[in-house]
Design a protein that fits this description.
By secondary structure, the chain is mainly alpha-helical. Helices cover 62% and strands 8% of the residues. It has six helices and two strands; from the N terminus they run ααββαααα. The longest helix is centred in the middle third of the chain and has 32 residues.
Length: 151
């Protein structure tokens, strides 16, 4: 067992970190949850009341065992939501830039471009093309994205 001595502020940050991590790992899953993340979140949140944050946790019993999860109040914490929104926006634009770059490479070099090119050449080409999209997105966000037939 490892003990940690945390200030109240550090524990509050730990609550947020654990919640965000579990949301990233399990938030999109309906089945096949990564149980270790969920259990660690439950363990950390079970200590919230003793650490001075009783409103952060929601407690219930299941199969005779006490479970602790983030409360609705905690899930609606503006700072947590801001951090997650910033992450989502960044990852979405990075992924979009990379997927558009992959598409462009396939259009200009054929569908099998990735297997025909060396991994290094493909990575360089992909990065160059994705950087162009990143620059556009950093200036215009999604305002510059047009999907024919939809807009």
């Amino acid at each position: 067992m490892i003990g940690l001595a945390l200030t109240e502020e550090q524990f509050k940050t730990l609550l947020r970190m654990v919640y965000i991590a579990n949301t990233v790992v399990n938030g999109h899953r309906d089945v096949d949850f990564e149980v270790a993340y969920d259990e660690l979140e439950q363990y950390v949140f079970s200590r919230a009341k003793d650490a001075g944050y009783p409103a952060a946790t929601s407690r219930h019993e299941m199969l005779g065992e006490e479970h602790h999860h983030p409360s609705r109040i905690f899930e609606n914490d503006p700072e947590v939501n801001m951090l997650m929104d910033q992450y989502d926006a960044h990852v979405m634009l990075e992924l979009l830039a990379e997927k558009l770059a992959e598409r462009d490479i396939e259009i200009s070099n054929g569908k099998d471009a990735k297997t025909k090119m060396s991994a290094e050449d493909y990575a360089i080409l992909l990065e160059e093309r994705a950087d162009k999209y990143d620059k556009v997105f950093s200036i215009t966000g999604l305002a510059g994205v047009v999907v024919p037939g939809i807009t």
